[in-house]
Amino acid sequence: MENFLEAAYAEAAAGYAEGGIPIGSVLVHRGKIIGRGHNRRVQKGSAILHGEMDALENAGRLPAAVYRECELYTTLSPCPMCSGTILLYGIPKVIIGENKTFMGEEELLRSKGVQVNVMDDAACYNLMQQFIKDKPELWNEDIGV
Amino acid sequence: MENFLEAAYAEAAAGYAEGGIPIGSVLVHRGKIIGRGHNRRVQKGSAILHGEMDALENAGRLPAAVYRECELYTTLSPCPMCSGTILLYGIPKVIIGENKTFMGEEELLRSKGVQVNVMDDAACYNLMQQFIKDKPELWNEDIGV
Predict the structure, then answer these.
(1) Which one of the listed residues B2, B11, B52, B98 is annotated catalytic?
(2) Is the pLDDT of residue A47 over 80?
(3) Which SUPFAM superfamilies does the record associate with it (chains A, B) (predicted)?
(4) Short-list B28, B41, B42, B35, CA closest to B11
(5) For the segment A58-71, what is each residue's pLDDT rounded down to a tens digit?
(6) Among the four A70, A72, A95, B92, which has the fewest Cβ within 10 Å?
């Protein structure tokens, strides 16, 4: 089986190669990736296409029953927007590459019954640190700072 | 000055005329609309373009300082995704057409210091009721039910 966090990281790396913010995500349903995405702020001038949102958008319109059998992999702890989207669709499990760079709404997710696993992945962390060192203003824009 | 809730309603009505889900939104900065949008689930096959998200996306990339001077008008109480986005960007005030059809995360928003005004607007309510009567499955898909 494909390593899903590696697939999310590959999305992040692809975004970085495009000059974008290196955060990637994949939506997995019953052991299969049904949506892949990465942050598109730079590439599409988007205010809402974080990696997780892009993966969900690329998965297309799905019935609620599908989301409830999904796992969402993301290279970075999900912000309030992406966490709210996880709650809207009732995605029961989120696997996070790292949360040292940014601590998202993990507690909110857990309080609503979402299983949250943090992998403390060095590759995810190092890519974000390299990006933030290069472009701190772009990172701040992405998280509303 | 333009009536901003009427502008959000006009977006909702435009979406309905397109065969879509009739929820509209406008983002207002210092008394001027800088983003207009409506739900695009049907029109774009989108899982994330709720009315509020579409208005924010159409406003384009903005620095955090601008969002902090904005008001977001929406015809319907904002779901967890849209509420999370309001929190991500620190939008301080949300004006809601109605919350009888759907009660969103108003308490979460208030708990984080967002001013939330509910207008109990009959036109917003009646449009949603008409839509849900026609297409209940589409409405359920939009709110993850």
Answers:
(1) B52
(2) yes
(3) Cytidine deaminase-like
(4) B35
(5) 999 999 999 999 99
(6) B92
Query: Please, which pLDDT band fits residue A99 given cuts at 50, 70 and 90?
Result: very high
Please compute Rg for chain B using Cα positions.
14
In A, what residues contact B, Cβ < 8 A?
41, 45-48, 53, 56-57, 59-64, 67, 79-85, 87-90, 105, 140-141, 143-145
pLDDT at B125: 98
The whole-number pLDDT of residue A29 equals 98
| Mean pLDDT rounded to a whole number for chain B | 97
Residues 6+ apart with CB under 8 A from A2: A33
Q: H or E stretch including A93?
A: strand A93-98
Mean pLDDT, range B111-123, rounded to an integer:
97
User: So what's the pLDDT on residue A1?
Assistant: 44
| Angstrom distance (rounded) from CA B131 to CA A30 | 33
Q: Which residues contact B32 (CB under 8 A, 6 or more apart)?
A: none
Q: List, as one string, the DSSP characters of B46-105.
A: -SS--HHHHHHHHH-S--HHHHTTEEEEEEE---HHHHHHHHHHT--EEEEEESSS---S
Q: Alpha-carbon distance B139 to B144, whole Å?
A: 9
| Residue A40 DSSP code | -
Which ipTM value was assigned to this complex?
0.96
For residue A47, give how far its alpha carbon lies from the nearest alpha carbon of chain B (Å).
5
Cβ of B60 within 8 Å of Cβ of A53? The answer is no
- Top CATH class, B4-138: alpha beta
Helices A4-17 and A122-134 sit at what angle, rounded to 10 degrees? 20
- Residue (of A45, A46, A136, A53) closest to A91 by Cα position: A53
DSSP B135: -
